[in-house]
Amino acid sequence: xxxxxxxxxxxxxxxxxxxxxxxxxxxxxxxxxxxxxxxxxxxxxxxxxxxxxxxxxxxxxxxxxxxxxxxxxxxxxxxxxxxxxxxxxxxxxxxxxxxxxxxxxxxxxxxxxxxxxxxxxxxxxxxxxxxxxxxxxxxxxxxxxxxxxxxxxxxxxxx
Length: 159
Description:
GNAT_dom, EC 2.3.-.-, acyltransferase, GNAT family N-acetyltransferase, 5-stranded mixed sheet
């Protein structure tokens, strides 16, 4: 029914559409400032910073899901795989593609000798939380996410 494979440059337009679908689901479509050309450079340029898998419907070859990851380094734990985005298009949810994608990323984590895998889930996304709980996932509530946008950093450094 589904085929999971490593993503290719020519998949990026379909993957980008899935990212936009995810942003809409997460009630933040205006926060997507990434572009297809940025993804091409960042994923397939001279210094790739992310990798991804896609889920295809076997009968049509249509990409219906993606899992985008990169590596981070924890001074406490060592090399970790970070699952940045993980989405299956709404009509295909609940049919097994998400499980196959997620388990492919778990395999990648072990293949690359990572000490573990990390990701985030919104506290209101009950279907995702239930899915992750099936894997015995530890969910923390004591850490606060922090970030600055490049425009904010430029302004701060001008001072």
